[in-house]
């Protein structure tokens, strides 16, 4: 099993029940999550040794974050306590044609206001196989744009492979800012989650002008590969959104000049879409750590993501055996 | 923005959770609503100045009604307090093939036993653009058959346009009684919600004998228009009931000899169907008050109705901006 | 109306809410049920005089079982109190592609450790039309394999028709053990619920090698009939599992050399699948008790089963009138 | 064990959670209960054969009433179905200094509009030891004033002892009306629940003018006894209301010229006070049926009432063994 | 009835259920409230015309605030929309000996970052009898210290009486800062809520050195009065904290050189203490607006505060009639 | 900070809501706990390095146990997976005079059927300061009587201090059996939780015949000390049970011939009493590990136990700082 460090912000999500609007609700369900934290939980579920580094306030909410991560076996030695507040957001899940709606309240969080590398980087990256970070972190502040690179370089130096999820959030920065920063990061990256829009907007890949859906995905991966030959694996999902309650999901992966695609999962109904992408990334990293063949990697990762959509909360709750048995069984029968 | 008065009964709905029968439940969710009250809420959401006139008992339930309406910005100056009780009904929502089932307990309510126009009509209708009332009200008693006409005439005299929703309820009166009464009302009406069955049963329109589904809707509107040239706008929905959990909905509108139809909304899953028609009527009246073009009116109204089906409770909870953004976006994606 | 006795184990089911895993839940919903108990409730709902014989511990859980059965009008005179514990199981319902998952904790229950016929058999079967028992009971212990036969013979002698539901559970015994026991039981059986897999695994019927789906069902029934001419009615369902949330269900019945099939029910969404088969068996026995024609029997039973899938809990909550009105209406409209 | 018939109205109670007002609640807990129904449940819990006669609407609410009674082993053969509606009331439980508040919505119920003895009286009272009825029933209508007497006489003739609980409700009738009717009933009564205020207001007993609290209770019983020598047992409670959350309760009983008093129970906190008096009456009748000595009767009945205050819902949920073990143990320790 | 304006911050409170800690909870109950908003709701409940001025973000949470206030009949014309976020706090209610614990997350809220008087002051104060504001507002920022005085002066000029609640919060500013600001405000104040500690810490009153509890309260009022002869009414509560679940509460008031004290309320159990002081202030202002005699004012206000402690949420839910009937009845009996 | 190992059974507790009986409930709250597990959580909360050794089934319930312990920072390396089932029990909490009632369903659990020391004892006890075990474990089986001694000796040999909680459970073994076993254990024990009844029943101490409550506790400790001079610390609580909802609690400790007693805590209301004793033991061990003076040890431990009674669930949720601040503050005020 591998040793992994992920670093990023973790927030408190306030969700209303299905069919209840934020403006009318009398109660919120509380979930703790964030891209890198969710990836950490997935990998811990699969038996890897995972640490999540972040910063949370030194109060009961920070303590709740620590308990949440510990519950799933994630090491919290590098979860710093301090700073002004825990970032949060409010989610009103979509139903059928109606899209989800989100109110972010993350400005000024303990993590966002970090200005220097407060973690003991030597200890953090020592013996670590993969360091995973996402494009949300450099989007938080100018300081974080610098700091992200500092962290990545330190990890690289310590011998980690760098896993980067582009994860563009338009509410945090402009495409221009994002592109500039991302292009300084990618030369250090080994595994990269980036899709067709990321290729166009941030990696300066020209739009595909053919008419074959099959070739389109390969095209973008190939072009991104050309620009960043240092990246050994690219991966992404193709999602067909029938409605907020029903999606089709296909995972795709590119490595060594080959394109791999999972079977298509019809996810209907969707219980909770948040964290679906993180479960996918977690599945890919798991496969790569285990040196599984690439078709198996993408099958596993996509199945893991499909499963995540069927449970409440940000984080995947399935073990390696459960994901594999789901892949083998592939239906909705009672097992008894 | 316009000034609107709606008048009718408002009831306490007791709902069981999905998958729980009335005969086994240990708890009921409480919602307050009624056709005209729901229209009032929709219009208040869109920024109009709306008053709802009714009568509720002078106890905590009457107070709950007042609070419910005030919450959505509906004026309750004309909500009288007194009389024996608040009408109620029990709803066991349908699931899939299984239809919803309803037990009414509305007889003898404070509103139903009203015998004379207890409201200050002059004040009620002063400066009002539209007076909206439905066919449920005259169905409540012989006194209400007379009173409904009294109210409509007073509103007309005060310069209001009259909006009437046929809304036939077979448990309250026979088709014959209904038809007789409705035909005394329609000559005063400006905007009328009436569908194909209403045309046949109450407006004495001969059944369509062609085989074009497209022409059928136009046919009924044209025939109704012939009989009541005073009515400037007719509107209705075409609903394809796949199951209690999935419906298709198309809005239709007739004005100036033209037929307008919205796009089709697939509502799957349905969270709560009650009030779907009222949200549609509210959307139509909003468009007419704003003098929007008729295609936009019907698009907006049908979208508003589709949205209503995705939230619990009788009343639409969406602002004009939200309905319009839903129309523009038209899918179930997370916005972040 | 008929008089029926069913006998078997009744357990406490712990269910998590949809989208919540057993390993993360903070609460369980409690339902009491078991194959024969559920059939008893269905038949009591339809107005038959039904007793359920079993054994439960002499504590509040045993008392809860008694209250549960009494609530639905099932006679509990033959529900013995004593023994070590109430069997239980944990159910995490499936969602979409994800299958349900079950943890059984039934070993050593008060019923399972019964060694001799503790019930007053003379009183139990006196005047009874049908004695219903399932293949789960002999699977519980060696003693129960003998005891099941003792009970069946006593019932037969008392003039009861014997109804047997094969209901194979692989977690309790092997196919070999099951087959051996079942084949000692079938010569006493009058009504038998057994499908295509039961025919192959336990009744030693050769697999169908044709390619007509229509003929396949008939084939198995015909072959089973050949082996057990004493059985006057065979019945079973054909279930197409689209996902854990959506199934298609067709009921089939064989009698007097004729094959009957119900219409197909699309069950979407499934609220609770547990007890769906028992509702079907209950519907068949109801039709047979009422000497309805066989097409009506299978239509009613399949409708009853489809309805069961739309409510929480093991037992069907619909009266004969409700099932028939569902059959007549066949859609998901609000009735008001 | 004895055979008992009770007859009266049963209603649907809507309760809010503690600390939530009716005018603000979004949900109600549903309980079914009524004085005579609650007594029936208590006696069935203690192993007596009890039938409850009433009338409820022929809908899911009537069915819920039947299921509720059956659950506790009460015979519902004489629970008629039909009429307009189920009476209901809304309860906002008191907290500390704040009293409970109740909204009745019971007018026009299926039971209240009964005009003639619709039950088969011969069958109803055949073999019955005690017929229990309360002063709420004659308060419902003029017809019920007559009918109550008809029922009591029929029961008397059939050999039943008559148990009557004065249970005056000021919202239903005046003291004058009540007194007149009650005085026509009492000559037929054997067991009577009546307290100090009942003695003064309805039995025309002069107010006690001594200053000994001990003698006061005896005084009223003695005077009532003088007026109605046919009544063999009088009983009542003395309740000291510290607050809506904490009460002291003492049971008192008079028979054969002797006064009996239970120990004092401090009930703190009170979970649900509704039905506390019915549990007391049920306990007294149980003791009288079992010919227990009078001190034991009053101890048991008061303990049963105290226990009732510790559970939600109208009806006592404790067996004879549980009440006795509570009496013996007398504290709040964990038993393990 | 009077016309009142209150101005201040309104926040979203997240509460856990009783006995559940913030660090372990999976859900929060949502309440909206703030000192001045709660006073506004109380006064609206009593029939006064009340506007609440504040600023909330232009999103669903801001909309929820508006709906909350409208529900209770508070005018929201002066509730501005805009700015970064809604302030919030997390409350873990105390139980018995264990104190409540609070995490504030109010920094940077839309209200706190206001720098200039964004409201139309002329319109805001026109015709208004009382302007109520608390010491929390100037504690929010340096800008707010100035702005508070600006608002008070404008209100004064427009003819309003100024009501000021000292309401010191040590987490927001030091005693020195608070004292300095408060002493610039008090010369404009007419009604002032200030207790013994306020007198010492902010009004520079020397500590009482006598030993009569009766005289102590008078002493502080007299001394404060000496320093601010412009203040016509001082009021405060004496609270004896037995535990987080049980308090004794006495209201005190000083006017025209006379000291008034309410009876003592034992509040046990406390359902929700938040807003208890605001309900008291609301009750005092109501009495003053109605020119009730001072003993009645303090009795009413203290009863209103005691009642508030028995319901969930920040705001008092009782009408004038309910408070008065509570005063008259003074116990916890069921009224029926 | 110290290093501690605790070993014992951990069970799934099913609790009903307050005021709901087991025989009527439709839902159970799930908590995981057991004496030694709860002590482990307390010590982990205080910052010690704690491992809990046990055995749970290899299914989702075993996984839930692991997650529960990890959440609180307890090391689960020695939590074995396997065996038949997880022990469970049902708890109906007491209310006021009514005692709690418990149904155990723990027979045949994965832990109870352990026959040999399946843990790697060398690794388990390496570097460990204290090994804590209770008298429940040897009560589970004859094998466990031997095994308990084996474990204690191995721990002793590895240099651990032995902490033993007598914790007699009459449902598991007789006083005779218990006494015999406990007396073989005590010669190895360093810290012992044993009270007055334990002294009499198992340590063969003659009953105190004086009349000073103060001297009684000392007497028993002194006599126990005489018999087991190897035990350096004895501790216990004196609990005055006013009712199931209100207790008084005093902690007592004996060491070096001195008797220490904490202040008295009035716990009212009690939220959840389960685990109160374990929180006390955890507090004592914490103090002993930190070599705090004995008065501080007993003050801290009793405060920790009092706090535990105010939260749901078996395990204490308070940090060292929170317990100390509770001791310092000592009341129920809001801190803000």
UniProtKB/TrEMBL annotation, chains A, B, C, D, E, F:
Keyword annotations from UniProtKB, A to Z: Kinase, Transferase
Carbohydrate kinase PfkB domain location: 2-316
Protein name as annotated: Sugar kinase
Superkingdom to which the source organism belongs: Bacteria
CDD domains (alphabetical): KdgK
Similarity field: Belongs to the carbohydrate kinase PfkB family.
Gene Ontology molecular function: kinase activity
InterPro entries linked to this entry: Carb_kinase_PfkB-like, PfkB_dom, Ribokinase-like
């Amino acid at each position: 099993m591998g040793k992994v460090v992920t670093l990023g912000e973790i927030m408190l999500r306030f969700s209303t029940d299905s069919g209840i609007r934020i403006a009318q609700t009398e109660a919120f369900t509380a979930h703790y999550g964030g891209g890198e934290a969710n990836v950490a939980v997935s990998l811990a579920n699969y038996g890897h040794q995972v640490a999540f580094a972040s910063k949370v306030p030194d109060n009961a909410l920070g303590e709740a974050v620590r308990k949440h991560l510990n519950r799933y076996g994630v090491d919290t030695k590098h979860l710093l306590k301090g700073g002004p507040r825990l970032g949060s957001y409010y989610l009103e899940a979509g139903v059928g044609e109606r899209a989800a709606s989100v109110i972010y309240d993350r400005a000024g969080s303990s993590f966002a206001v970090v200005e220097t590398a407060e973690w003991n980087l030597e200890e953090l990256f020592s013996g670590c196989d993969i360091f995973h970070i996402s494009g949300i972190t450099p989007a938080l502040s100018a300081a974080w744009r610098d700091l992200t690179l500092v962290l990545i370089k330190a990890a690289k130096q310590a011998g980690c492979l760098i896993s980067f999820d582009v994860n563009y959030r338009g509410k945090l920065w402009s495409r221009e800012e994002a592109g500039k920063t991302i292009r300084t990061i990618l030369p250090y990256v080994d595994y990269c989650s980036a899709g067709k829009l990321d290729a166009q907007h941030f990696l300066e890949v020209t739009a595909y002008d053919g008419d074959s859906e099959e070739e389109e995905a390969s095209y973008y991966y190939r072009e991104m590969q050309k620009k960043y030959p240092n990246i050994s694996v690219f991966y992404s999902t193709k999602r067909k959104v029938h409605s907020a309650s029903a999606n089709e999901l296909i995972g795709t992966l590119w490595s060594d000049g080959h394109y791999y695609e999972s079977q298509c999962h019809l996810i209907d109904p969707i219980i909770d879409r948040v964290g679906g992408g993180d479960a996918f990334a977690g599945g890919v990293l798991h496969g790569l750590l285990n040196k599984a063949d690439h078709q198996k990697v993408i099958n596993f990762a996509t199945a893991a993501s499909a499963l995540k959509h069927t449970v409440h909360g940000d984080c995947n709750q399935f073990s390696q055996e459960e994901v594999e048995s789901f892949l083998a069984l592939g239906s909705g029968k009672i097992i008894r």
